[in-house]
Amino acid sequence: MKTASTSSHQGRLRRIEGRHNALVKELRKAFARGEPTSDGYCAIEGARILEEAIRSGLRFRAVFFSQSAENRAERLLPQIGAHVETLLLPDKLFATAVPSESPQGVAALVRWKEFSLDDVLAKAQSGPLLAIAGVQDPGNLGTILRSAEAFDAAAVVLGEGTVSPFNPKVVRASAGSVFRLPIARTNLNDAVARFREQGLRLIGTSSHKGSPVDQAKLDGSLVIFIGGEGAGLPRDLVSQMDELIVIPHSSRVESLNAGVAASIVLYEAARKRA
Fold first, then answer.
1. pLDDT digit string (tens) for 12-29?
2. Which domains are assigned to the chain?
3. Which whole-number Å values give the CA distances from 59 to 67, 179, 183, in the listed order?
Protein backbone atom coordinates (compact mmCIF):
# COMPACT_ATOMS: atom_id res chain seq x y z
CA MET A 1 0.00 0.00 0.00
CA LYS A 2 1.34 3.45 -0.95
CA THR A 3 1.57 6.08 1.74
CA ALA A 4 -0.15 9.43 1.28
CA SER A 5 3.27 11.06 1.08
CA THR A 6 4.43 8.78 -1.75
CA SER A 7 1.19 9.29 -3.65
CA SER A 8 1.45 13.08 -3.39
CA HIS A 9 5.02 13.02 -4.72
CA GLN A 10 3.97 10.83 -7.63
CA GLY A 11 1.09 13.19 -8.27
CA ARG A 12 3.58 16.02 -8.76
CA LEU A 13 5.51 14.10 -11.40
CA ARG A 14 4.17 14.75 -14.89
CA ARG A 15 4.82 11.76 -17.13
CA ILE A 16 6.34 12.64 -20.51
CA GLU A 17 6.59 10.08 -23.31
CA GLY A 18 7.58 12.12 -26.40
CA ARG A 19 11.05 13.43 -27.28
CA HIS A 20 9.50 16.59 -28.74
CA ASN A 21 8.24 17.92 -25.41
CA ALA A 22 9.40 21.56 -25.17
CA LEU A 23 11.16 21.17 -21.80
CA VAL A 24 12.94 17.97 -22.84
CA LYS A 25 14.14 19.72 -26.02
CA GLU A 26 15.34 22.68 -23.95
CA LEU A 27 17.24 20.37 -21.58
CA ARG A 28 18.89 18.58 -24.50
CA LYS A 29 19.86 21.88 -26.15
CA ALA A 30 21.24 23.37 -22.92
CA PHE A 31 23.46 20.31 -22.35
CA ALA A 32 24.68 20.43 -25.96
CA ARG A 33 25.55 24.15 -25.81
CA GLY A 34 27.13 24.17 -22.36
CA GLU A 35 25.80 27.71 -22.01
CA PRO A 36 22.60 29.27 -20.64
CA THR A 37 19.46 29.05 -22.77
CA SER A 38 17.97 32.26 -24.19
CA ASP A 39 16.08 32.80 -20.92
CA GLY A 40 19.11 32.11 -18.73
CA TYR A 41 18.68 28.50 -17.65
CA CYS A 42 21.47 25.90 -17.62
CA ALA A 43 21.37 22.12 -17.58
CA ILE A 44 22.73 20.10 -14.65
CA GLU A 45 22.78 16.36 -14.04
CA GLY A 46 23.16 14.02 -11.07
CA ALA A 47 21.55 13.68 -7.65
CA ARG A 48 24.45 15.22 -5.74
CA ILE A 49 24.69 18.22 -8.07
CA LEU A 50 20.93 18.74 -7.81
CA GLU A 51 21.22 18.71 -4.01
CA GLU A 52 24.05 21.26 -4.22
CA ALA A 53 21.85 23.47 -6.42
CA ILE A 54 19.05 23.24 -3.85
CA ARG A 55 21.48 24.02 -1.02
CA SER A 56 22.82 27.00 -2.99
CA GLY A 57 19.32 28.46 -3.35
CA LEU A 58 19.22 28.31 -7.15
CA ARG A 59 16.07 28.95 -9.11
CA PHE A 60 14.69 25.88 -10.92
CA ARG A 61 12.71 25.87 -14.11
CA ALA A 62 12.17 22.09 -14.34
CA VAL A 63 13.48 18.87 -12.79
CA PHE A 64 13.59 15.62 -14.76
CA PHE A 65 13.63 12.06 -13.38
CA SER A 66 14.03 8.84 -15.32
CA GLN A 67 11.59 6.01 -14.65
CA SER A 68 14.28 3.94 -12.91
CA ALA A 69 15.17 6.86 -10.60
CA GLU A 70 11.61 7.47 -9.41
CA ASN A 71 12.66 6.52 -5.86
CA ARG A 72 15.08 9.49 -5.90
CA ALA A 73 12.14 11.78 -6.70
CA GLU A 74 10.51 10.83 -3.39
CA ARG A 75 13.59 12.07 -1.51
CA LEU A 76 14.26 15.20 -3.61
CA LEU A 77 10.80 16.55 -4.42
CA PRO A 78 10.11 17.91 -0.90
CA GLN A 79 13.30 20.01 -1.20
CA ILE A 80 12.59 21.41 -4.67
CA GLY A 81 9.60 23.66 -4.06
CA ALA A 82 5.98 23.30 -5.08
CA HIS A 83 5.96 25.55 -8.14
CA VAL A 84 8.70 23.82 -10.13
CA GLU A 85 7.77 21.56 -13.08
CA THR A 86 8.77 17.96 -12.25
CA LEU A 87 8.75 15.43 -15.06
CA LEU A 88 9.08 11.64 -15.23
CA LEU A 89 10.66 10.28 -18.42
CA PRO A 90 11.11 6.73 -19.73
CA ASP A 91 14.75 5.69 -19.27
CA LYS A 92 15.46 5.71 -23.01
CA LEU A 93 14.05 9.21 -23.46
CA PHE A 94 15.99 10.50 -20.43
CA ALA A 95 19.22 9.01 -21.86
CA THR A 96 18.73 10.95 -25.13
CA ALA A 97 18.52 14.25 -23.23
CA VAL A 98 21.61 14.02 -21.01
CA PRO A 99 25.30 13.70 -21.99
CA SER A 100 26.34 11.15 -19.36
CA GLU A 101 26.95 7.61 -20.59
CA SER A 102 25.74 6.25 -17.25
CA PRO A 103 22.99 8.68 -16.23
CA GLN A 104 21.85 8.79 -12.60
CA GLY A 105 18.33 9.57 -13.70
CA VAL A 106 18.17 13.13 -12.33
CA ALA A 107 18.61 16.36 -14.31
CA ALA A 108 17.35 19.93 -14.13
CA LEU A 109 17.18 23.33 -15.76
CA VAL A 110 18.43 25.91 -13.25
CA ARG A 111 19.54 29.51 -13.21
CA TRP A 112 22.53 30.89 -11.37
CA LYS A 113 24.07 34.31 -11.47
CA GLU A 114 26.90 35.38 -13.74
CA PHE A 115 28.89 38.32 -12.36
CA SER A 116 30.51 41.36 -13.96
CA LEU A 117 34.14 42.40 -13.51
CA ASP A 118 32.91 45.24 -11.30
CA ASP A 119 31.12 42.71 -9.06
CA VAL A 120 34.34 40.73 -8.75
CA LEU A 121 36.50 43.78 -8.02
CA ALA A 122 34.13 44.77 -5.21
CA LYS A 123 35.09 41.52 -3.45
CA ALA A 124 38.86 41.87 -3.85
CA GLN A 125 39.48 42.87 -0.23
CA SER A 126 37.91 39.72 1.21
CA GLY A 127 40.41 37.29 -0.32
CA PRO A 128 42.54 36.63 -3.40
CA LEU A 129 41.05 36.82 -6.86
CA LEU A 130 41.79 34.02 -9.29
CA ALA A 131 42.27 34.75 -13.01
CA ILE A 132 42.15 31.80 -15.40
CA ALA A 133 43.86 32.17 -18.78
CA GLY A 134 42.86 29.54 -21.31
CA VAL A 135 42.10 26.46 -19.19
CA GLN A 136 40.16 24.34 -21.67
CA ASP A 137 39.67 21.04 -19.84
CA PRO A 138 36.32 21.09 -17.99
CA GLY A 139 37.60 18.76 -15.26
CA ASN A 140 40.53 21.09 -14.56
CA LEU A 141 38.33 24.19 -14.36
CA GLY A 142 35.85 22.40 -12.11
CA THR A 143 38.70 21.34 -9.80
CA ILE A 144 40.03 24.91 -9.71
CA LEU A 145 36.60 26.29 -8.78
CA ARG A 146 36.16 23.68 -6.05
CA SER A 147 39.58 24.56 -4.58
CA ALA A 148 38.85 28.29 -4.93
CA GLU A 149 35.82 27.91 -2.69
CA ALA A 150 37.62 25.52 -0.32
CA PHE A 151 40.51 27.95 0.24
CA ASP A 152 38.39 31.13 0.39
CA ALA A 153 39.22 32.84 -2.89
CA ALA A 154 36.99 35.91 -3.15
CA ALA A 155 36.04 35.46 -6.82
CA VAL A 156 37.19 34.07 -10.16
CA VAL A 157 37.77 35.77 -13.51
CA LEU A 158 37.73 33.57 -16.62
CA GLY A 159 39.69 34.87 -19.59
CA GLU A 160 39.23 34.20 -23.28
CA GLY A 161 39.84 30.63 -24.41
CA THR A 162 38.70 29.23 -21.06
CA VAL A 163 35.94 26.61 -21.02
CA SER A 164 32.50 27.88 -20.00
CA PRO A 165 31.63 27.60 -16.29
CA PHE A 166 28.20 26.36 -17.42
CA ASN A 167 29.69 23.31 -19.16
CA PRO A 168 28.08 20.23 -17.50
CA LYS A 169 31.48 18.62 -16.86
CA VAL A 170 32.72 21.82 -15.15
CA VAL A 171 29.62 21.86 -12.96
CA ARG A 172 30.11 18.21 -11.99
CA ALA A 173 33.84 18.55 -11.26
CA SER A 174 33.22 21.68 -9.17
CA ALA A 175 30.89 19.69 -6.88
CA GLY A 176 28.56 22.70 -6.72
CA SER A 177 31.19 25.41 -6.05
CA VAL A 178 30.37 26.95 -9.43
CA PHE A 179 26.92 27.82 -8.05
CA ARG A 180 28.30 29.84 -5.14
CA LEU A 181 31.50 31.51 -6.34
CA PRO A 182 31.33 34.94 -7.98
CA ILE A 183 32.58 34.22 -11.53
CA ALA A 184 33.04 36.80 -14.29
CA ARG A 185 34.11 36.28 -17.90
CA THR A 186 36.22 39.00 -19.52
CA ASN A 187 39.33 39.79 -21.56
CA LEU A 188 42.23 39.43 -19.12
CA ASN A 189 44.43 42.06 -20.77
CA ASP A 190 41.60 44.57 -20.28
CA ALA A 191 41.10 43.34 -16.71
CA VAL A 192 44.77 43.89 -15.79
CA ALA A 193 44.35 47.68 -15.99
CA ARG A 194 41.33 47.45 -13.67
CA PHE A 195 43.27 45.26 -11.23
CA ARG A 196 46.04 47.87 -11.17
CA GLU A 197 43.54 50.68 -10.48
CA GLN A 198 42.44 48.72 -7.42
CA GLY A 199 46.02 48.38 -6.19
CA LEU A 200 46.03 44.59 -6.53
CA ARG A 201 49.31 42.69 -6.85
CA LEU A 202 49.45 40.40 -9.88
CA ILE A 203 50.94 36.95 -9.26
CA GLY A 204 51.61 34.68 -12.23
CA THR A 205 52.20 30.94 -12.02
CA SER A 206 54.96 29.32 -14.06
CA SER A 207 56.05 25.72 -14.50
CA HIS A 208 59.78 26.49 -14.57
CA LYS A 209 60.76 29.95 -13.26
CA GLY A 210 59.91 32.30 -10.42
CA SER A 211 59.90 32.42 -6.63
CA PRO A 212 59.17 29.08 -4.93
CA VAL A 213 55.53 29.17 -3.87
CA ASP A 214 56.36 28.75 -0.16
CA GLN A 215 58.58 31.87 -0.29
CA ALA A 216 56.25 34.08 -2.37
CA LYS A 217 54.31 37.01 -0.93
CA LEU A 218 50.77 35.68 -1.16
CA ASP A 219 49.01 37.72 1.50
CA GLY A 220 47.33 41.08 0.98
CA SER A 221 45.14 42.04 -1.97
CA LEU A 222 46.19 40.08 -5.03
CA VAL A 223 45.19 38.31 -8.22
CA ILE A 224 46.63 34.86 -8.91
CA PHE A 225 46.88 34.03 -12.63
CA ILE A 226 46.65 30.39 -13.73
CA GLY A 227 47.61 29.51 -17.31
CA GLY A 228 46.15 26.90 -19.61
CA GLU A 229 47.21 23.30 -20.05
CA GLY A 230 50.48 22.98 -21.92
CA ALA A 231 51.08 26.58 -22.93
CA GLY A 232 50.78 28.18 -19.48
CA LEU A 233 50.26 31.93 -19.15
CA PRO A 234 50.46 33.91 -22.43
CA ARG A 235 53.61 36.04 -22.74
CA ASP A 236 51.67 39.30 -22.90
CA LEU A 237 50.25 38.51 -19.44
CA VAL A 238 53.54 37.23 -18.02
CA SER A 239 55.18 40.57 -18.84
CA GLN A 240 52.60 42.39 -16.69
CA MET A 241 52.97 40.30 -13.53
CA ASP A 242 54.44 41.76 -10.32
CA GLU A 243 55.83 38.36 -9.40
CA LEU A 244 56.11 34.92 -10.98
CA ILE A 245 55.89 31.89 -8.73
CA VAL A 246 56.76 28.26 -9.30
CA ILE A 247 55.86 25.04 -7.49
CA PRO A 248 59.13 23.10 -7.14
CA HIS A 249 58.77 19.55 -8.46
CA SER A 250 60.84 16.74 -9.93
CA SER A 251 62.56 17.51 -13.23
CA ARG A 252 61.18 14.20 -14.51
CA VAL A 253 57.77 15.92 -14.75
CA GLU A 254 57.46 18.77 -17.23
CA SER A 255 54.61 20.56 -15.47
CA LEU A 256 51.74 20.04 -13.05
CA ASN A 257 48.11 19.68 -14.05
CA ALA A 258 46.44 23.13 -14.03
CA GLY A 259 43.87 22.04 -11.43
CA VAL A 260 46.54 20.63 -9.13
CA ALA A 261 48.82 23.68 -9.49
CA ALA A 262 45.99 26.12 -8.76
CA SER A 263 44.95 24.09 -5.71
CA ILE A 264 48.48 24.12 -4.25
CA VAL A 265 48.86 27.88 -4.78
CA LEU A 266 45.42 28.59 -3.27
CA TYR A 267 46.23 26.43 -0.25
CA GLU A 268 49.54 28.24 0.26
CA ALA A 269 47.84 31.64 -0.03
CA ALA A 270 45.22 30.58 2.53
CA ARG A 271 47.92 29.28 4.89
CA LYS A 272 49.80 32.61 4.72
CA ARG A 273 46.64 34.65 5.34
CA ALA A 274 45.90 32.51 8.39
1. 899 998 888 999 999 999
2. 4-111 (3.30.1330.30), 117-273 (3.40.1280.10)
3. 24, 11, 18
